[in-house]
Amino acid sequence: MYRSLGIDEDIYRIGEKTEEALKERFAVIDRTAEICQMKVIAAMQKNRVSTECFETSTGYGYNDLGRDTLEAVYADVFHTESALVRAQITCGTHALSLAMAANLRPGDEILSPVGKPYDTLEQVIGIAPAPGSLREFGITYRQVELLPDNSFDYEGIREAIHENTKLIEIQRSKGYLTRPTFSVEQIGELIAFIKGIKPDVICMVDNCYGEFVETLEPSDVGADLVVGSLIKNPGGGLAPIGGYIAGKREYVEQCAYRLTSPGLGREVGASLGVSRSFYQGLFLAPTVVASALKGAIFAANLYEPLGFSCVPSASEERHDIIQAVTLGSPERVVAFCRGIQAGSPVDSYVAPEPWAMPGYHSEVIMAAGAFYQGSSIELSADGPIEPPYAVYFQGGLTWAHAKFGILMSLQKLKDAGLLP
Ligand SMILES: *Cc1c(COP(=O)(O)O)cnc(C)c1O
């Protein structure tokens, strides 16, 4: 089967050997998925999820049982007072933008204690001038870089917090950076330190790509808000759109009033038929995340021995589903992404090209033979065309597909004569 799909004998053998050596680590991942699965089932049972919850609403969406129950389920999964989970939240950037805009007022300051936030947030915050940015509303921003060893600069953070500091933005995942992703434990330590200086500051965690990777979430260790996208981990590959914000009731309520309108809040917002896929996606998410994690570890263990630096490294513990592989040249980034594309169930016959995508400051190449546009819990790879020419690989609804896609990426590098 592999041969007929374009994988040669050599690449297949390397794959088998690599997988064989990862059995124990895969067992640990399966155990985490088991615990997360129980968390989701418990939340669904407690909130009496029923077939009526899969009905749809239209128009204003008043009394949408499925939508309201799902929000209670999310709140229980994340152990928070409240949650907003909506199709009207269009993506992760929107969810983060919403959470900040809803809870900040002119004169307030945002602090990122972990260096530069995700690319798309630069325009949201107004680090780079952008129409509609928080900066245009008189909201200021400050960041404290990580120390050279990637630990938190506690002294710098202490100095950066002042009277107007209102919201702390902590990005869990590395995103498009080569710094490590933070563990939930590290995030908990950071939040405890910050709350020790200013107890009433809002600690918001950009939870994108982190959900269900560990048995605890940032909301279990003091985060006031956790925010993410449903076309990543918690949507389980089935949510066709959406974002969530979970946390303290007063902050989540502000988000609801900002998302719809003051006075209306969470009472409106028709579910338009997506409720069933939101529930089913959340139900599958723990095992889908496990598949993606196995793929990430497999990729690191395949590429690192070939001399490509990997973040996380082949042996490191995982805190998100992203695998960065530094390939060192634009040609390799393109070949890698074309391999992932060629291994996809959808659009496998097309060859991706680098493109100036909205929200990103350099050209980006993206491989995504996905059922949903841009869904990065599905096997996907993307890389900004800039030094050090790293690709960021993530997702895989099933382990078998993740494995095949990664083998295909290696095959494309080999076929183009780009392996060292
Ligand atoms: C993907 C991502 C976002 C933005 O989500 P979109 O759905 O692409 O808008 C924000 N932060 C991090 C860390 C992400 O990985």
Keywords for this entry:
single chain; 420 residues; alpha/beta; Aspartate Aminotransferase, domain 1; Aspartate Aminotransferase, domain 2; seven-stranded mixed sheet; 11 helices; globular; binds pyridoxal-5'-phosphate
Secondary structure elements and pairings:
Layout: H1 9-20, H2 23-46, H3 65-77, E1 82-86, H4 92-103, E2 109-112, H5 119-125, E3 140-143, H6 154-160, E4 165-171, H7 184-197, E5 202-206, E6 225-229, E7 243-247, H8 249-259, H9 275-303, E8 309-311, E9 323-326, H10 330-342, E10 364-368, E11 380-384, E12 390-394, H11 399-415
Parallel strand pairs: 2-3, 2-4, 4-5, 5-6
Antiparallel strand pairs: 1-7, 6-7, 8-9, 9-12, 10-11, 11-12
Helix pairs in contact: 2-3, 2-9, 4-8, 9-11, 10-11
Residues 91-93, 118, 120, 171, 173, 175, 206, 208-209, 229 line the site of pyridoxal-5'-phosphate.
Task: Describe this protein's structure.
The protein is of the alpha/beta class and 420 residues long. It folds into 2 domains: 9-37 and 285-415, Aspartate Aminotransferase, domain 1, CATH 3.90.1150.60; 56-282, 3-Layer(aba) Sandwich (Aspartate Aminotransferase, domain 2), CATH 3.40.640.10. Helices cover 38% and strands 14% of the residues. It has 11 helices and 12 strands. The protein has helices spanning 9-20, 23-46, 65-77, 92-103, 119-125, 154-160, 184-197, 249-259, 275-303, 330-342, 399-415, and strands at 82-86, 109-112, 140-143, 165-171, 202-206, 225-229, 243-247, 309-311, 323-326, 364-368, 380-384, 390-394. It has a 7-stranded mixed beta sheet, sandwiched between helices. The protein has a 5-stranded antiparallel beta sheet with strand order 8-9-12-11-10, with helices on one face. Helix 9 crosses helix 11 (399-415) and helix 10 crosses helix 11 (399-415). It is globular and about 65 Å long. The two termini are 27 Å apart. The mean pLDDT is 96. The structure holds pyridoxal-5'-phosphate. Pyridoxal-5'-phosphate binds at residues 91-93, 118, 120, 171, 173, 175, 206, 208-209, 229.
